[in-house]
């Protein structure tokens, strides 16, 4: 597996579960059965394992298994390139760290190990179900008094503290995901979770223009693939005719990267993100 420096971790601990094979002495114990983590953060999938005899030769995690075929080692999957760190060993620890989480990482992860004994291979059930969520600001209420909610698709526990931003400046810190006040339609609002201030939600604004970039600085390997993701807002009375990315601005004109020599054929616009 490729290594990468780990970032911050935000997880939800629900319960511990042990997966036991029908043969004596074989087991995999997952510390958590279900984890909810923020998009862009880092998560640890922790577990331990036992076996009756022999020497462990191979260890890996996987998410997919086909009948009659050996499951695919996530370390060989390009989707996880440079984002996996196996912190386990070939004795009893099987901890896996995944960095820079993406929503498509949501899956059930299982650990497999193979020994030098005849029929000495096993994977632990049921695995760890990982749900990756972004933050989204939802607006409810009347014209003057509105309530903003910092919303996620799965529940963050450990009593997270929410940070609210108005026009890019921090205005409130609270354990509640709700923010009630008289809000101006000309101001933009976004939220984050304390400890993950760099993982801001897209800004919401009723009558203003804004672009929120998920990451302002990215370092990647030559020849690899990168997602440059963002979200944008605009006044409701406007209709978007064209959206594109650019690197150079000349006068009042910007050139669409998709038509720039050198980028043709290896960039892909996916709505709110650019992949190349």
From TrEMBL:
<dbReference type="InterPro" id="IPR013783">
    <property type="entry name" value="Ig-like_fold"/>
</dbReference>
<feature type="signal peptide">
    <location>
        <begin position="1"/>
        <end position="22"/>
    </location>
</feature>
<keyword id="KW-0732">Signal</keyword>
<dbReference type="InterPro" id="IPR056386">
    <property type="entry name" value="Ig_CD22"/>
</dbReference>
<dbReference type="InterPro" id="IPR036179">
    <property type="entry name" value="Ig-like_dom_sf"/>
</dbReference>
<dbReference type="InterPro" id="IPR007110">
    <property type="entry name" value="Ig-like_dom"/>
</dbReference>
<feature type="domain" description="Ig-like">
    <location>
        <begin position="126"/>
        <end position="201"/>
    </location>
</feature>
<protein>
    <recommendedName>
        <fullName>Ig-like domain-containing protein</fullName>
    </recommendedName>
</protein>
<dbReference type="Pfam" id="PF24518">
    <property type="entry name" value="Ig_CD22"/>
</dbReference>
<dbReference type="InterPro" id="IPR003599">
    <property type="entry name" value="Ig_sub"/>
</dbReference>
